[in-house]
Amino acid sequence: MAKGDDGWDVVSEDFPTRVQFEDIGDEFIGRFQKVEKVDGSTGSFDLYVFSDGSVNGTDGEEGERFSVASNARIKTGMKKARPGNQVRIRYVADIPTNQDNPMKDYEIAIRRS
Description:
Blueprint: E1 2-3, E2 9-10, E3 17-18, E4 27-40, E5 43-55, E6 58-59, E7 65-69, H1 72-78, E8 86-95, E9 103-111
C-alpha cells in the first residue's frame, strides 16, 4: 500500500497500460514493480506491473505504468525478477499448438539494480 503525499493511503490504482506483443521482435523494457493476481472471466492470472517503460524503443509518459499478462514462459522468467529490476521481454517466436493460434515464445532478460 502506497502512502500519498497528501496523507491518503492508495489502496487501488488505475489500470496500467497493457503491453501487447503482436509481431515477432516486439520488445518491452521496464522497471518491475509488482505482480498482481487478477480474477478474469476465464480464471485468475498474474499481471506484471512495471514503471519507466518503453515499447519497441518508444518511451512511455512520465509516471506511466505498464502491465504484461503472464503466460508459461513469462511466468517462468519473471520468477527471477525482483522489484526494482529492469526487465526486457522480447517476443521471439511462435510455437505451433493443436489449437487455431500458436503459443507465443518470449525471451526474458533481467538487469539487477
